[in-house]
Amino acid sequence: MQFHIADSFTAALARLSGQEQKQAKTAAFDLQLNPAHPGLQMHRLTNSRDPNFWSVRVNQDVRIIVHKTEASFMLAYVDHHDKAYVWAERRRIEAHPRTGAIQIVEVNERIEDAGPLFAPSQPDTTNAQPQPAPAPFQPVAPAIFANLTEDALLNIGAPADWTSDIQGWTEERFFQMSDRLPAEVGEALLDYAATGRLPTPEAAPTDPFAHPDTLRRVYTITSEDELRLALDFPWDKWSVFLHPSQRNVVGRDYSGPARVTGTAGTGKTIVALHRAARAVREDAQARVLLTSFSRPLANALRAKLAILLSDDPVKLARVSIASFEDAASELFQLATGRRPTLAPIDAQLPALERAIADLGYKDLPTRFVFSEWRQIVDAWNLPDVASYTNVLRIGRRTRLGSKQREALWPVFEAARFMLAARGFITPSQLFAAVEADAKARTDKPFTHVIVDEAQDLGVAELQMVGALASGPNAHFFAGDLGQRIFQSPFSWTGLGVDVRGRSTSLKVNYRMSRQIREAADKLLPSIARDAYGAEDDRTGAQSVFDGPVPSVAEFADERSEERYIAEFLLRATAEGIPPSAIGVFVRSTSLLSRARNAIAAAGLECRQLSERVEALQNYVSIGTMHFAKGLEFRAVVVMACDDEVLPLQSRVDGAADESELREVFDTERSLLYVACTRARDRLSLSTVTPVSEFFSDMGIEIGARL
Ligand SMILES: Nc1ncnc2c1ncn2[C@@H]1O[C@H](COP(=O)(O)OP(=O)(O)OP(=O)(O)O)[C@@H](O)[C@H]1O
């Protein structure tokens, strides 16, 4: 007999107290060993429409609901006695007759509390007395699925007792009801509402428990050890119940570098983690590098991979997890025997200033020289004046003629010399050194390199990553072009990393409520393009839960804004959101004081996030929007979204031409998008008058004007 655990069981288990969870796990274990164990008092439920539901005693009050057929045994739910019984009375578990997927279906006739299904009928006026003038005509909203036949609905997996209701649903009703449908049905209907087409069902395996839609909610336990592990370890849903589109990317073999894309919160990181786990599970020789932009993000990846590979520390040890820079430093040390000393930005700028002064250049704007250094000369590790004068090939920044570049080159050469004399190398030089070393080796340092937040890989980083492993399945990138905030665009294909034809876009948003996602999505165009033709389709995203509409407030002065945000923070903590699950973001360092003041006014303490500092217990996280990247909070505040702050006026002023200006606007929008999309449940934006021009794009009415 097969033994299964449903996601409804793990979710319900997580809601019990620690002691109850322990007891429920013991009961589940006893159940697997011996369902007839007398202490379990297992008996069939008589009030359920599904005759296969059984109750199992955990303690005096708590019951596990088991679904038992001749061939299978499923832990379906667990709760306090009455709630557990009501859950089972309202459900049935069955293989859908058309799609074959196992579904946990809410019996439709029992749904009472979601309001009337149809608009009330007109009153009978046969013997009516004179009435006051009728209220203004209210059009009845159209039924958005009226054109879908029962057959079409069954094809997408709609339970038979739901089809006629679905046909009558208005848009509002659909949003109220969709999370009561099996997830694949809600997603297909949302697709239909957006595009007018239903997705074509894919051929399904004959075993219902192997169906991709079954696998998103039911996990098959194959051994005692596996059950022990599943019950002992906190079972995060993402670690087991993947969406079919995620599972597909995790399990696929590619003929070259591959990429997963998707708007914020669609589970790209989760896919990257599962691919890393898969690589070491399938190949005992695999050596994997899992890398991302910063140390906190690498730490977050490490914690999650430890959950995925909790059954096998040896396999876990075969995955190296580090930020781009830390990974490069380690490899550099392995190759040369010495630790690199990276040139901080604070050292690079003075070196350039000094070089300008030493060479006697007058009227050369330092900001321009520095940007040329960072974006071109250092970013590409240009070795000589010839490659710099030939820079047209590689960048968009074409504003300097070749004569001017020749004249400027000695400045860069001198700055490089000065940095080297102090024992510094720049991060780009570090990446290039590691790349050169890896290229020279036949035995590459890794068999697989998996990169998260790949949209912010710089030129030298990408080249290094490319050299660290070889083979068709060796490189996997997770990223979203719409979240590119650090790097200027460049052509990946031009550097030999061609993901065309091996790119998959995820659409189901697991992080943000529908209301937050919809507001944030309006900030970016529906297609994200970079200057080199790469494109991500950002349409068609769906959220799996609803929440409050984000709030937007505008104030006459900073004190009023700070007081308003303090109140928001107090409300959030009063609702049980701990400080560590709250993030407050501003555009730049000089604005952090506004965040600090608001947090202090709420009587809370904060810690500033950075490339090296992550969220801490008991502290609200604050930071510039750049350090929001890749993180997640239950409540997010984005403060000081003032005019001239977003987009940042100094960047706008510094743009030399149209294309640079566009780039500035694009990245400033992306920054706001990144900050807003960290929020799961609550999002509050605020500004001091005059307000950022990006606000109106989000389509949210400004709620408070004080
Ligand atoms: N299959 C799943 N089931 C449940 N939760 C999931 C699933 N996939 C992802 N999640 C959750 O959704 C949230 C977002 O996932 P993730 O961080 O992987 O998204 P992302 O696309 O990398 O986001 P971003 O682009 O903003 O970095 C996380 O809390 C993650 O645990």
From TrEMBL:
Hydrolase found in the keyword field: yes
Pfam families given in the database record: AAA_19, UvrD_C
EC number assigned by the record: 5.6.2.4
Reactions the enzyme catalyzes: Couples ATP hydrolysis with the unwinding of duplex DNA by translocating in the 3'-5' direction; ATP + H2O = ADP + phosphate + H(+)
Any one GO cellular component localisation term in the record: cytosol
Name of the protein: DNA 3'-5' helicase
Keyword tags: ATP-binding, Helicase, Hydrolase, Isomerase, Nucleotide-binding
Upper lineage: Bacteria, Pseudomonadati, Pseudomonadota, Alphaproteobacteria, Sphingomonadales
